């Protein structure tokens, strides 16, 4: 049997080199999962006693992972390179989703869930996101403002093995409350002698419908010399991935009926109610959204490693460089009612289901603003007796004054470029001066940068929409209204050439009747915007570890102690997308009709293949979008808008208010409040005692206990920027047509400056001189005393003050781990520890913005006169339609937003207990766990104090990330893996890997709103958190994986199913304001490999074979009722891989 086993392993060896960089796994998979937990024992062995590393396939990979789990001194799960490369997991994050209790994140948790990633970006461990990432046991991060490495930027070909720590010991670096993920790479001494390999694969995504290649190469050798043994290796990898996703979104139902009252619009003015079904109250679903995104990712990496050793010492140096570049273009076709404008939508031919759940009015979408002010804070529920709408024809004649009929269907284009670069240089020295003493010294230098820019361009056309709702098989049919013909006198750049025979004006350009949704005579520029980010980070770290083994047979086996120092700095500059109208009809600069442009800036986008076809039906499948080359170049976008003849005045100046966030040289421009410089210095020390005892009955105990001391000093530099009030435009009493439009005294009481002079000066203290400039006159000023020249008018920026915040925190973190070996196969393991996770670097920034929150009280609306019978006429109020200014503007609050450098670390107590059985060919384990967390960081408000301005004392409130929550997590993990060698024939090559995790978690929900003055009214309606949701972000209650395996001497196959139950994506969706939940989701992946000979291997991998859609629902009331929100469909990916090693 022994000779058969050895031969079997040798035959399987040819499957090991999964890709050029995959060698780390197969060469290093016998290494311990954490270098911190083992002495430098390899320096104690002569070269001729080196263990033989046998290259094997998935069978040995799983056995190695089980061995690592069994021997570890705390709770560890591992995957090795064969695991990473055996499935088409294009990032480490996706591969880790097969570890018990680990899930992959594809959405930005807590923020907008509208922009998923086709590749997994990060991981949660047991539902927690406080995960520390390490590269070869050292700090690793991406300069995006967080603390973790973006695993999507790391090629799996670079991976030797990945260890997932779910509890802690004193010698593990703090920072991973959820757990620690350590990625280990290849070292030259992991294989004897010369080795080299090359590989190539081709990836195809069936939504992108494009092929993309990857190339990998590795070479290494080791030599005996007079000064010891030397090893060198180098590896390079390039990878291109072209992927795509499609997304369907729909709004929550809105009550429409005879008793739903008068909802308010975005200006808090009543809107009329239009019944859909006479006498019935129904849930109307008023709108749709279709989104396509094409993503082109290029990734290049280089890896160099050198080693030297003799009998007592070993020196290892490594250098890793990874460059990740992503270019994406997204197009969205949508029509949503904005604010209260939903009441202007007409719905006919509607069908309804049998739903009777009452509805509130808080779910009116707000596309361009924060959700509208809910008059009753979502408390008033309207009974539904007509069901929720499932299909219907939607139209809207709101824009008929422009000559347009139908819904305003918007087409949003977003172009985005992202580049991340990570360089990591490390040096490690191991020394065994005596038989019992081990010393390890380590140093690293890591630099990282992350840059991105995105440009938005929006256009609009008109259509009548017939919508069939649903997340699986929605349908949309667009038709045009034959009455739609844009009036020529509202078109930007229109020139009147004379009059016709009927006395009507004629123009140089007259739009024709709309013929389709892609007709340039019925589509126009609507808005544009750009956003930028530039982050750079640097970390220098040193550590020393010493272990001394005790002699004799006492309980105490060894003592380990050490110290660590890191100095990390990061600079971040952010400029959020600055939405700005370009040429909508209401802007006054003329409608930017595509058909009238001298230089066309549009391109056709066809949605016919959305969801692989069948959703957008009929002949109108194309729309006009802003050109992609403008979306991918903010400078070109700005220059086009500035120079397009139809957008310029006679003197050549631009009519359009759009100003990109760019300096004169085209580089991004950042407000002072959005630039931060954070520096952290951390000093750690630990002491850990290892113990163990063998008993005569075959049982034994071993474990460790210790304490870790950590202290961190933070210095955060930034600016406090004060947001000045907007321009007090000097509007004349009589307009250019000679019509009186406002009262003579309206100008004296129509803006914040008129009512709050002290607050005005406090926000921007420099008072203007008496003289008016030409720019002042153009801006509409007639009174120079109302101008603060220190405040740039384009951004309402007031004064800026540099500020530095320093803080220091110290923690003692005890830990205890015990392993009770019941016999040679079974053990019971227990672990208890304290740990902490520090806030994200971006959350600690000192850059902040202060603004004044005010309430405007308008004069009562004067209604048009209505004749009283029998009279047929009446006298109109002389003030009807006249602007009278405002009654009052009062100061409610001083609000501070931005970073919070006073945040404290989140801390946790963790407990684990497991039973594990390791038998020939497999293992079974079951465990229970619990974590109690304090000071969880979430979005919220915090009262900082108060101040008096303009005779009123108001609260100063910070809104942003605050320490406010606690959480408790407990659960169960089950794991099983086995190869069925005892079965006859081909069945003996079968294996199964399965795991299941149950998580029960509860957390303190974010406060519904802040009411600092106690008047019962929320201080900020833009950040209301509804319904008291207690879920943790991203936490699924159930997670399981099932992997079927086949492996013989020539073939290796695997089919895997990964499933997780629903999880919370955000407490507050930007569009609806509702909590949004990702629905249950499962995906099937598969791979098959053929070993042509011991050197050549061919593999075919496939992912998302089930073509699974990622669906989400929104909660619409306190009872937990959910309605459909969105559904995203990713590529089915297929990878053909050819590998050769020698």
SSE layout:
Blueprint: H1 2-12, H2 23-28, H3 58-71, E1 76-80, H4 81-86, H5 92-96, E2 102-105, E3 122-125, E4 131-135, E5 138-139, E6 161-165, E7 179-184, E8 195-205, E9 210-225, E10 228-249, E11 254-256, E12 282-284, E13 288-309, E14 313-335, E15 346-352, E16 389-395, E17 407-431, E18 437-468, E19 475-479, E20 496-499, E21 505-507, E22 524-549, E23 556-575, E24 580-581, E25 592-593, E26 602-606, E27 616-617, E28 622-626, H6 628-631, H7 634-643, E29 675-694, E30 700-723, H8 752-755, H9 757-763, H10 774-779, E31 797-821, E32 826-837, E33 848-857, E34 888-898, E35 906-919, E36 922-949, E37 952-979, E38 990-1003, E39 1038-1047, E40 1051-1060, E41 1063-1066, E42 1076-1078, E43 1081-1091, E44 1096-1103, E45 1109-1115, E46 1122-1130, E47 1133-1141
Parallel strand pairs: 4-7, 19-27, 30-33, 34-37
Antiparallel strand pairs: 1-6, 2-3, 4-5, 6-7, 8-9, 8-47, 9-10, 10-13, 10-46, 11-12, 13-14, 14-17, 15-16, 16-18, 17-18, 18-19, 18-22, 20-21, 22-23, 22-24, 22-25, 23-29, 26-28, 29-30, 30-31, 31-32, 32-35, 33-34, 35-36, 36-37, 37-38, 38-39, 39-40, 40-43, 41-42, 42-45, 43-44, 44-47, 45-46
């Amino acid at each position: 049997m022994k000779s058969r086993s050895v031969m079997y392993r040798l035959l399987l060896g040819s499957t090991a080199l999964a890709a050029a960089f995959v060698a780390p796994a197969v060469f290093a998979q016998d290494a311990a999962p954490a270098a911190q937990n083992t002495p430098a024992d390899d320096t104690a062995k002569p070269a001729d006693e080196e263990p033989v590393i046998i290259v094997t396939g998935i069978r040995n990979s799983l056995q190695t992972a089980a061995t690592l789990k069994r021997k570890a001194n705390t709770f560890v799960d591992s995957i090795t390179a064969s695991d990473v490369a055996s499935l088409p997991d294009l990032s480490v994050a996706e591969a880790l989703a097969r570890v018990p209790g680990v899930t992959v994140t594809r959405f930005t948790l807590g923020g907008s869930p509208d922009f998923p990633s086709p590749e997994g970006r990060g991981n949660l461990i047991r539902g927690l996101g406080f995960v520390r990432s390490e590269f070869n046991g050292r700090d690793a991060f991406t300069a995006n403002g967080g603390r973790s490495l973006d695993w999507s930027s790391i090629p799996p070909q670079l991976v030797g093995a990945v260890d997932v720590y779910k509890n802690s010991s004193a010698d593990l670096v703090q920072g991973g409350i959820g757990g620690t993920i350590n990625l280990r790479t290849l070292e030259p001494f992991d294989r004897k002698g010369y080795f080299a390999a090359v590989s190539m694969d081709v990836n195809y995504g069936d939504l992108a419908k494009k092929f993309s290649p990857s190339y990998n190469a590795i070479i290494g050798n080791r030599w005996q010399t007079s000064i010891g043994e030397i090893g060198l290796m180098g590896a390079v990898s390039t990878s291109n991935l072209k992927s795509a996703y499609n997304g369907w979104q729909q709004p929550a139902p809105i009550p429409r009926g005879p008793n739903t009252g008068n909802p308010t619009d975005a200006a808090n003015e009543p809107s009329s109610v239009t019944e859909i079904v006479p006498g019935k109250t129904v849930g109307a679903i008023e709108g749709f959204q279709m989104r396509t995104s094409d993503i082109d990712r290029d990734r290049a990496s280089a890896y160099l490693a050198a080693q030297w050793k003799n009998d007592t010492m070993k020196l290892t140096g490594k250098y890793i460089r990874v460059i990740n570049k992503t270019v994406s273009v997204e197009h969205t076709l949508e029509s949503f009612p904005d604010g209260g404008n939903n009441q202007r939508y007409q719905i006919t031919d509607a069908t309804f289901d049998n739903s009777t759940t009452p509805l509130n009015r808080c779910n009116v979408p707000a596309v361009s603003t924060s959700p509208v002010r809910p008059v009753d804070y979502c408390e008033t529920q309207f009974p539904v007796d007509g069901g929720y709408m499932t299909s219907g024809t939607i139209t809207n004649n709101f824009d008929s004054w422009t000559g347009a009929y139908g819904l305003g269907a918007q087409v949003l284009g977003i172009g985005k470029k992202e580049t991340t670069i990570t360089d990591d240089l490390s040096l490690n020295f191991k020394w065994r001066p005596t038989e019992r003493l081990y010393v390890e010294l380590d140093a690293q230098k890591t630099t990282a940068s992350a840059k991105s820019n995105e440009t938005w361009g929006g256009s609009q056309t008109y259509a009548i929409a017939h919508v069939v709702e649903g997340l699986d098989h929605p349908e949309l049919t667009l038709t045009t209204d034959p009455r739609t013909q844009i009036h020529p006198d509202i078109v930007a750049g229109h020139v009147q050439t004379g009059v016709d025979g009927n006395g009507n004006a004629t123009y140089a350009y007259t739009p024709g009747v709309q013929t389709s949704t892609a007709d340039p005579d019925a589509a126009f520029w609507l808005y544009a915007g750009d956003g930028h980010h530039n982050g750079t980070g640097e970390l220098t770290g040193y550590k020393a570890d010493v272990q001394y083994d005790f002699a004799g047979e006492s309980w105490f086996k060894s003592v380990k102690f050490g110290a660590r120092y890191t100095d990390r700095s990061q600079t971040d500059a952010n400029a959020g997308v600055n939405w700005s109208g370009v040429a909508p009809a209401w802007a006054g600069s003329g409608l930017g009709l595509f058909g009238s442009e001298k230089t066309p800036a549009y391109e056709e986008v066809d949605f016919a293949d959305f969801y692989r076809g069948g959703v957008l039906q009929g002949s109108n499948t194309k729309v006009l979008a802003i050109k992609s080359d403008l979306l991918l170049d903010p400078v070109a976008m700005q220059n086009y808008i500035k120079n397009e003849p139809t957008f310029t005045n006679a003197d050549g100046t631009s009519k359009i208010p759009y100003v990109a966030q760019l300096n004169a040289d085209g580089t991004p421009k950042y407000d002072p409040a959005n630039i931060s410089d954070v520096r952290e210095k951390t000093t750690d020390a630990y002491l850990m005692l290892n113990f163990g005892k063998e008993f005569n009955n075959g049982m034994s105990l071993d474990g460790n206990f210790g304490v870790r001391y950590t202290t961190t000093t933070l210095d955060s530099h930034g600016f406090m920027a004060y947001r000045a009030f907007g321009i007090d435009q000097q509007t004349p009493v009589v307009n250019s047509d000679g019509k009186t439009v406002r009262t003579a005294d309206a100008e004296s009481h129509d803006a914040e400056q008129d009512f709050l002079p002290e607050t005005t000066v406090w926000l921007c203290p420099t008072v203007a001189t008496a003289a008016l400039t030409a720019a002042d006159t153009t801006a509409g000023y007639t009174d120079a005393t109302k101008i603060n020249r220190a405040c740039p008018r384009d951004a309402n920026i007031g004064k800026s003050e540099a500020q530095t915040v320093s803080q220091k925190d110290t923690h003692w973190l005890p830990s205890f781990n015990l392993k009770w070996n019941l016999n040679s196969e079974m053990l019971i393991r227990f672990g208890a520890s304290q740990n902490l996770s520090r806030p994200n670097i971006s959350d600690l920034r000192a850059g902040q913005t202060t603004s004044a929150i005010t309430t405007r009280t308008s004069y009562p609306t004067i209604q048009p006169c209505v004749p009283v019978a029998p009279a047929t006429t009446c006298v109109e109020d002389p003030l009807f339609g006249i602007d009278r200014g405002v009654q009052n503007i009062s100061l409610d609050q001083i609000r501070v937003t931005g970073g919070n450098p006073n945040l404290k670390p989140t801390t946790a107590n963790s407990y684990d207990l497991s039973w594990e059985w390791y038998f020939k060919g497999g293992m079974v384990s079951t465990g229970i766990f619990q974590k109690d967390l304090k000071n969880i960081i979430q979005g919220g408000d915090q009262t900082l104090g108060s101040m008096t301005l303009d005779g009123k004392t108001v609260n100063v409130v910070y809104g942003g990330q605050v320490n406010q929550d606690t959480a408790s997590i407990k659960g169960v993990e089950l794991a099983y893996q086995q190869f069925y060698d005892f079965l006859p024939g081909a069945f003996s090559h079968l294996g199964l890997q399965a795991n299941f995790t149950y998580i029960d978690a509860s957390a303190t929900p974010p406060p519904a709103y802040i009411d600092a003055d106690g008047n019962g009214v929320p201080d900020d309606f833009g950040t209301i958190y509804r319904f008291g949701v207690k879920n943790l972000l991203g936490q699924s209650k159930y997670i399981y994986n099932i992997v079927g395996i086949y492996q013989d001497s020539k073939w290796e196959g695997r089919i895997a199913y990964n499933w997780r139950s629903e999880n919370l994506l955000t407490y507050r969706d930007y569009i609806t304001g509702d909590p949004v939940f990702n629905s249950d989701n499962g995906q099937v992946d598969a791979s098959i490999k053929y070993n042509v000979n011991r050197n050549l291997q061919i593999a075919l991998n496939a992912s998302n074979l089930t073509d699974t859609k990622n669906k989400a629902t929104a909660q619409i009331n306190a009872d937990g009722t959910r309605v459909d929100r969105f559904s995203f469909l990713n590529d089915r990916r297929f990878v053909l891989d050819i590998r050769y090693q020698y």
